[in-house]
């Protein structure tokens, strides 16, 4: 029996294109390109593929999620939009696939306005404060979840 190729989305919001140089004391020195490369390899080894998307624009993130209805799962690091965007929350809630919210830093130990995520109650899981490894943890979790559904 041939296993279906699973498609995973790797969605990154505002300012995450500057990973590697932006506040390295908080976010480290790994670039977004390096994160995508690592996640692509993990997905490939599990018989899947990753489609990566980053935008500094809220509407572009929503459009992307809506256009990817055939995906099997998604990882989203919404950046600061986690704490401000009801419309991004609504787009994530409408996804027919599991979505994992990732934050590189431990937002619960930062400024008070970062403690609340509008996405938390509409995502299947959250990975917070593990650094860039959080993306890999989230992807491995999604891989296992989709295997259960086969």
Brief digest:
The protein has helices at residues 24-27, 32-45, 58-67, 86-93, 133-148; strands at 6-12, 48-54, 73-77, 99-103, 125-128. By secondary structure, it is α/β, with parallel strands linked by helices.
Can you walk through the features of this model?
- The chain is 35% helix and 19% strand.
- The protein has helices at 24-27, 32-45, 58-67, 86-93, 133-148; strands at residues 6-12, 48-54, 73-77, 99-103, 125-128.
- Strands 2-1-3-4-5 form a five-stranded parallel beta sheet, with helices on both faces.
- The protein is globular and about 45 Å long.
Unreliable residue runs: none
Count of runs of 4 or more consecutive helical residues? 5
What's the average pLDDT? Answer: 94
The span between the termini is 11 Å
| Number of beta-strand segments | 5
Q: How would you sum up the major sheet? A: 5 strands, parallel
- Rg from Cα: 14 Å
Secondary-structure element string:
EHHEHEHEEH
User: What characteristic shape results from the CA principal axes?
Assistant: globular
Structural class: alpha/beta
Q: How large is the share of residues in beta strands?
A: 15-25%
Helix content: 25-40%
Output the strand order for the largest sheet: 2-1-3-4-5
Please describe the structure with a list of short key phrases separated by commas or semicolons:
single chain, 150 residues, alpha/beta, 5-stranded parallel sheet, 5 strands, globular
Topology:
Layout: E1 6-12, H1 24-27, H2 32-45, E2 48-54, H3 58-67, E3 73-77, H4 86-93, E4 99-103, E5 125-128, H5 133-148
């Amino acid at each position: 029996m041939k296993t279906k190729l699973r498609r995973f989305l790797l969605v990154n919001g505002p300012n995450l294109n500057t990973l590697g140089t932006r506040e390295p004391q908080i976010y480290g020195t790994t670039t977004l390109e390096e994160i995508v490369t690592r996640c692509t390899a993990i997905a490939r080894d599990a018989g899947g593929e990753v489609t990566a998307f980053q935008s500094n624009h809220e509407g572009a993130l929503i459009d992307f999620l809506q256009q990817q209805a055939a995906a099997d799962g998604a990882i989203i690091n919404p950046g600061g939009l986690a704490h401000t965007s009801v419309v991004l929350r609504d787009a994530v809630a409408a996804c027919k696939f599991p979505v994992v919210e990732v934050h590189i830093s431990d937002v619960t130990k930062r400024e008070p306005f970062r403690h609340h995520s509008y996405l938390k109650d509409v995502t299947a899981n959250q990975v917070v404060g593990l650094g860039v490894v959080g993306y890999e943890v989230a992807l491995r979790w999604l891989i296992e979840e989709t295997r259960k559904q086969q």
